[in-house]
Amino acid sequence: MKAIINAKLMVNDEILEGQVLLFDARIIKIAETVDLDNVEVIDAKGHYVSAGFIDLHIHGSGGADVMDATPQALEMLSSTVLQTGTTSFLATTMTMSLQDIDNALKNIQDHKSTVSGANILGIHLEGPFINTEKHGAQDKEYVQSPNLALIKKYMQEVKMITLAPEVEGAEGFIKHLAKEYPHIILSIGHSDASFEKSKESFGWGVSHVTHLFNAMNPYHHRKPGIVGAVFDSDVTCDIIADLVHTHPSVLELAQQVKKEKLILITDAMRAGCMKCGTYDLGGRRVEVADGKAELEDGTLAGSVLKMNEALLNMRKHTSMTKVELVNSVTKIPALKLGVSKGELREGYDADIVIFDENFSIISTIIAGEVKYKG
Fold first, then answer.
1. Is residue 284 over pLDDT 90?
2. I want to staple 173 with a disulfide (CB 3.0 to 4.6 A). Which of 58, 70, 146, 194 is the partner?
3. What HEC string does 239-267 produce?
4. pLDDT of the residue at 328
5. What is the side-by-side strand order in the sheet with 292-295?
6. Which H or E run includes 327?
7. pLDDT at 297 over 90
8. Cβ-count burial of 297 within 10 angstroms (0-12 exposed, 13-18 middle, 19+ buried)?
9. b/e burial code for range 23-42 (CB count within 10 A of at least 16 → b)
């Protein structure tokens, strides 16, 4: 059993001081007085303590990528993101050959529970059911019409699918999944759907939008498109706050409109937490320099964003409070996924992060075990 003392605890949308957080693999209680006999005490030294960060969209980090389809790659990704405060994530795939995707899905299915760092909560299938006109860094050669055959062996592991609702076969696919597999988050992304089609898809079962503003049609006052539909509904959305994919003023706009429906993601590729240089994403050459990852033609190719850096960027460039910032990477994504994480609450998993005023990570705890010290 462990206890964290001298902390600014982020609990129930408040910041509490003078309280003790008691936990083992799960949160036991938060109280002013706790019997600390035979308890391992962690002194937070006045720093912030929150639930661990959750990344719904990450391809790789530490030189590894989900599409490598090896247990070693998942382990490297899992252990590397601890330094960013991330304690859980969805292992995110790419639009590649059907065999490559199947290999990656099978690897996640077989090895997601064996990693020693951040928890793999499941699979985020980004593509191949997308629009070739908005493929971004995804290889349009491998874009497919929506079909269940690709994922039928992995329905319990798949937690999120990014797709284009306007492509042929999407309506029936979305309606079927929404009815038969309600645990799967269906998300618009890499799409050219109109405002009307986007709103219609929300009625079919789409409830989320992937990296808002990126790989979709732009907002226009006569053709508001996907962004307009998001702003005119209660669907959740995520955004890449690296100041490359989105301008600071756009970050402020998004949070003003979406508020508790906004989630921060990294969309990081294998160069995350690595030096600048040449890498690959989905078999395509990527140059990483000055915080930007680009294909040879200049197309943005994922990011090298760290989750704690995303929080710092949002703090600097938006009016979000500390609680709102942390909720966007803890409580809100956890609620979206339906998992007992994301809050310092009795009975919830003891995935915990200690960080300073600038979101520098001091300690990352998974299931009650200290896994990283900064």
1. no
2. 146
3. EECCCCCCCHHHHHHHHHHHHHHEEEECC
4. 98
5. 277-281, 284-289, 292-295
6. helix 322-327
7. no
8. exposed
9. beeebbebeeebeeeebeeb
CA distance to 87, 112, 308, per residue, from 115 (Å): 12, 6, 21
Tokens at 3, concatenated = 């206890």
Q: pLDDT > 70: what percent of the chain? A: 100
* 325-345 b/e (C-beta count within 10 Å ≥ 16 → b): bbbbbbbbbbbbbebebbbbb
Q: What angle do CA 176, 141, 272 make, to 5 degrees?
A: 85
227-273 tens-digit pLDDT = 999 999 999 999 999 999 999 999 999 999 999 999 999 999 999 99
**At residue 306, what is the residue type?**
K
| SS3 (DSSP) at 136 | coil
Structure tokens at 286: 């990527």
Q: How far apart are CA 66 and CA 282, in angstroms?
A: 10
Q: How far apart are CA 328 and CA 342, in angstroms?
A: 10
- Domains of the chain in start order, with CATH, are 2-49+346-373 (2.30.40.10), 53-337 (3.20.20.140)
The model's pTM is 0.96
Residue with tokens 């996924």: 337
Task: Point out the residues that are catalytic.
Answer: 267
Q: What three-state secondary structure class fits 84?
A: helix
> Model confidence at 292, in pLDDT bands (50, 70, 90)?
confident
- The Cα–Cα gap between 7 and 153 comes to 45
